[in-house]
């Protein structure tokens, strides 16, 4: 440790630990939000007066989409206009001014909108949407952290044993693409 050859190992393992902590936190958040998604599926049915309140209930009601963009959707439910934030990539369906849809509400928020034709959208307020995002990023952080740790360990072993060299990478010749 006195000769400075352990620094790649220390930095590699520290970086790996940091990535694992962040990855673990994201996986924990994914699990917690998954519990919320399960609660939203198992919530009791809303009474008519509870549709747009924060009551812990779920309702599937008829409505109309009056405006749809890649970031927002305006839905009319029970005579009230509700704006929901969405993330839609790709081409939006062409639609008449008002599209009849089935709207799923949970705790007063629109979480899902669909119709029989070509519209099936989870809003950004839907717990399942965030759960999948956190899980995917968490796995990426854990895998990348493992790669950083292994790289630090390999570099430390290479630095301690001077007979080990970096693997020989083929050198590609100018514009021909042939290896030398």
From TrEMBL:
Domain of life from the UniProt record: Bacteria
Keywords (A to Z) from UniProt: Membrane, Transmembrane, Transmembrane helix
Entry's transmembrane regions: 6-31, 137-154
Name of the protein described by the UniProt record: Transmembrane protein
């Amino acid at each position: 440790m006195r000769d400075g050859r352990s620094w790649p190992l220390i930095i590699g393992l520290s970086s790996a630990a940091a990535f694992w902590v962040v990855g673990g936190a994201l996986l924990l958040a994914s699990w917690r939000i998954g519990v919320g998604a399960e609660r939203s599926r198992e919530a009791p049915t809303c009474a008519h007066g509870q549709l747009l309140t924060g009551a812990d209930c779920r309702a599937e009601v008829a409505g109309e989409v009056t405006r749809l963009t890649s970031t927002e959707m305006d839905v009319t439910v029970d005579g009230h206009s509700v704006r929901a934030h969405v993330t839609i990539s790709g081409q939006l369906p062409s639609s008449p001014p008002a599209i009849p849809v089935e709207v799923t509400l949970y705790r007063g928020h629109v979480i899902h909108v669909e119709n029989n034709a070509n519209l099936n959208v989870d809003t950004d307020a839907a717990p399942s949407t965030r759960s999948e995002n956190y899980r995917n990023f968490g796995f990426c952080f854990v895998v990348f952290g493992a790669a950083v740790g292994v790289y630090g360990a390999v570099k430390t072993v290479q630095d301690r044993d001077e007979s080990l060299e970096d693997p020989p990478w083929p050198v590609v010749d100018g514009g021909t693409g042939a290896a030398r």
